[in-house]
Specification:
Elements (H helix, E strand, L loop, with lengths): L1 H18 L6 E9 L8 E9 L5 E9 L2 E13 L2 E6 L6 E8 L2 E8 L5 E9 L4
Antiparallel strand pairs: 1-2, 1-8, 2-3, 3-4, 4-5, 5-6, 6-7, 7-8
Length: 130
C-alpha cells in the first residue's frame, strides 16, 4: 500500500511539474544579429513561446519584413531554468539555439553543429515590457 501511495504521489508531482508554466512562455520581440558574412542578414524577430497540455514547449519564430510578420519555423524547446534549448533540425545546417532568461530579456545564440560557429546572436524582450 505504501508503495502504491508513493507512486501516486510521484505521478501527481510530475503532472504538476508538467503543467506549471515556465517563465519563458509568452511573446518576445527584438533583434537577431548575424555573426557571419552575407547572405545572412540581421532581422527584427518575434517569437511566440507556448506550452501544450503535455508540457511541451514550442517556439514559433517570425521575422518582420515591411511591417509584416513572416513565419520562419517552429521549434520544439526544453526549459532548464534559466536556459531554454531549441534544437534546429531538418535543415541543411542543423544547429542549437540556446537562450538565457534575464528578467524580461532572452539572450541567445544559434551555434551550427558541424562547424561550432556562432551563426546568430539574439536579444528579445517580453512584449509589453521595456
Amino acid at each position: 500500500m505504501k508503495a502504491l501511495l508513493f507512486c501516486f504521489a510521484i505521478l501527481l508531482a510530475s503532472n504538476a511539474f508538467a503543467q506549471s508554466k515556465p517563465p519563458v512562455v509568452g511573446e518576445w520581440e527584438g533583434e537577431s544579429v548575424c555573426q557571419v558574412p552575407k547572405p545572412c542578414t540581421t532581422e527584427h524577430v518575434i517569437y511566440d513561446i507556448e506550452q501544450d497540455a503535455a508540457g511541451q514547449l514550442t517556439m514559433k519564430a517570425d521575422k518582420v519584413v515591411n511591417g509584416q510578420r513572416e513565419w520562419m519555423g517552429t521549434l520544439n524547446c526544453v526549459w532548464f531554468a534559466p536556459k531554454l534549448s531549441c534544437p534546429l533540425t531538418n535543415v541543411s545546417r542543423p544547429g542549437d539555439w540556446v537562450f538565457t532568461l534575464e528578467g524580461n530579456t532572452l539572450r541567445g545564440t544559434l551555434t551550427l553543429r558541424d562547424t561550432k560557429i556562432v551563426f546568430r546572436k539574439v536579444t528579445v524582450r517580453r512584449k509589453g515590457m521595456s
